[in-house]
């Protein structure tokens, strides 16, 4: 994709942000929808955890194919196919009742979700100026909070009526996202350097697999996402079980929490540049340590006020660290193979997302419905993530565009 004018970039980024926000609305909404689903379908905590985890099997399977396709056929086609797949899966999720069918549909939804962050990152790599890439990437990732707000406001309102209505409404929003991509996404023109790129493609896979940072970031995001998806999956159930909150009260707290997800994401690039003076690793380590401490304090606190404060702290820090880690490939990896590289890195996120609800659901069941032990496990996972971050090799990409500390 050739570089676009700034005005065109604005509409392109808005289109991506809308689709990205909807994927996070889907990821967040299942945590609220699972409460009436359990009551209607008679699901146990382990079954609910397995249902939520099926999404991440599909997400993981399609990571590398989506990255490879983004490099080969272009991010627009991958984005359209991905969101179209999610639309169909979301619609059918609201139509069926059998647990096995719900699991299959969530798996298919995961297949579609896999292409969205990868194709979005490919767009950033192709169209945005080097100095603006981390900010634009953080801007796109900040829509995770917007998705959360939609999930716990619009989504929860529909769930209170009937959880199936929420998924019908979400399918309609995905249809709008597809239209926005058609109207606002620039056409992918034939690249005059296609022959040269073909030569680069012959070595692209080997370049990706020889880069140790790809696999270090893979591991870091795996352990970080055990925290991110663990608390997204079980916070509503914990507040219902431990503090007697109804869905309306839970939605209010989680709506505020979703705003902080965006704040954490948006503030990361500013804090790295202005406070930590470009020392990305030091910022990431500080954030993940605070996140781990907040998770454990959250688990052992009996006070509702303390638990809410700790929830807000680990939301801010975990999302800031996530954006920092996800932005590093733009500084450490060659643009020509950014799609394939991010596919492998993001696979760590999806494996962590798959393991988290399953492991935490098992721990909750094994300890007699005690959610606190699951959040202690998340805190430990955050500390492991910090250790992995220490291993990142901070060096500029071969083009010499970046200086990385």
From TrEMBL:
The keyword Transmembrane applies. Pfam families: MFS_1. It is found in: Cell membrane. The keyword Membrane applies. InterPro entries: MFS, MFS_dom, MFS_Na/Anion_cotransporter, MFS_trans_sf, Tet-R_TetA/multi-R_MdtG-like. Residues 12-397 form the Major facilitator superfamily (MFS) profile domain. The chain crosses the membrane at residues 12-35, 47-66, 78-101, 107-127, 139-159, 165-185, 214-232, 252-271, 283-301, 307-325, 337-359, 371-392. Keywords: Membrane, Transmembrane, Transmembrane helix, Transport. It is a multi-pass membrane protein. Coiled coil: none annotated. This is MFS transporter. It comes from Oceanobacillus longus.
